[in-house]
Amino acid sequence: MPSKRIISPLPYNPAVFVWARNRADYSQGEVAQSLKVSIQKIIAWESLIAAPTVNQARQLADLYGRPFLEFFAKEIPEVVETNLVPDFRTQHNTVVDHENRILKEVQAWGEMQRLNTIDLYEINGDIPPTLPARLKATIKDNPEAIAAIVREILDFPIDRQLSLRGPEKANLVRKIRSKFEDIGILILKNSDLGKCNARGLCIYNELLPIIILGNEAQNGSTFTLCHEFAHIILGQSAVSDGIQKRIEVNAIEAWCNRFAGAFLVPEITLKKFINPNRKLPEISDDDLAKLASRFSVSRHAMLVRLVQLNMVDADYYWQTKRPQFLEEERNQKSGGRNIYYGSRYRNKNGDLYTGLVLEAWSNNRITNHNAAEFMGIKNIAHLFDIRKHFND
Fold first, then answer.
1. Where do runs of H (alpha helix) occur along the chain?
2. pTM, entire model
């Protein structure tokens, strides 16, 4: 005798449950394991033999990356598929389709945050800034010269970077991120990039271009941030793995790597601290660490730069140090303990976006609930935490 369909206390559409799960590429067993329920419950929900609680339905929405209210739709929602930006990753494997689905979700999220940013500017009675006209280049331009122009545009001379002391050295990426945001670049973070061998994603627009960083540790993300910024200079959207290649076959990626090195460690300045006329077969760990500390960059980034400028033999990097650095990076946790819980939302959305939300909220142009939705926060207390500490 067939099971009877129940009359749900909430008008869920079981067909949407099935559609959302399939779209997110989850099996019923995987969903059951994630929600810590039996697979029979998932089957029952999708047949409307039983209905999830509101909390369980919200968990499904979070897992599938879909709006909770979508589960009440009478028809399967029409979703415009995201066209993935040009893919410059080099590490592909058998799960590339799964990776591309994740990348499309990250890209769609970034594009939605950009639209939210434009809305917030309008709510606050402002207009988004436009990128400086000089912030353009081609791969035929000298990245050293372009890096010098960028420092001038940002009002961030290398002497200011060299003057960083103590904890400020570890915060170089935050300073550079702030400088990029000041000229109208939306910089976000999404740890899902790390699931698909990607370190950074750039979505180019003339108005509010987007950089999305993954979950690298701070000293590693500095290079990635500057690499993705180089894509904006070139007017080129891209998803990148940020991995140096001994023989660069992609001219765009090679130029972006070169720019990142030139921006963080200008050649003319580096030559003040190392003999440029003598190519070293190798460099000691102590000397490398001292040079890296001077410029507040990682030892990996510094050695790459020395090899770029032909100051250290390339074999020493590729055969000896590179494997060590990659192993260190795999074992190194990203970031650190958050100063306060709400800081994770601020870090994910960036100060440009967060500042616009706080401005609209503080001026009563949006409600507490609206502000929390813009930030992706469920506990309103975290929103007050962010406002309390925003100017620290």
1. 14-23, 28-35, 39-47, 54-64, 96-123, 143-154, 158-162, 167-170, 172-182, 218-234, 251-264, 267-270, 285-295, 299-308, 314-315, 322-331, 343-362, 368-375, 380-389
2. 0.81
